[in-house]
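Action item from last week, closing it out:
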Amino acid sequence: MNYHFYGWQTANVKPVGNEYKGIDDPRQLYDALKNIWCEYTCAPRLRSEWSKDNVTLGQCSITAFLVQDIFGGDVYGIKRPGGNYHCYNVVGDVVFDLTSEQFGDEVLYYEGNELQDRHDHFAKEEKKLRYEYLRVLLKKYLMNEIPEGLSGELFICESGGNEEILFV
């Protein structure tokens, strides 16, 4: 299969644990995320532009930190106009960006960028909640509790000790 995210050809890193059974490399993670990224995991400022044709839009930081959970490594950020950062992953000497497709043909530079800290990113409660939501969706998807191709449908995540996804 041909992928279009940056670094897909060399994204041969292995998971650091076994919490996400069925994910053995970043390409498999991408395949799973493509089925669960939705407008509710998209950054609020971009939500009105999110579509099934551009599922990676507004997903970068929460995805990059989830990738870090699964494969280790570091999260770096490319400074964007307006002061926000586009996040991507570096594991050992392997650089990849599961959400690069959102920029179309724009060339991004993956060298000399700032290391990103999850605590700084997750100081924004909405971002932390989107990350938790994506994490729970991925686990449910891997347990075959979310059918493929429902990207963009409404899910409700409740967490009060128990994590549950309800389909509406």
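Closing note: Helices lie at 26-34, 60-71, 118-121, 125-142.
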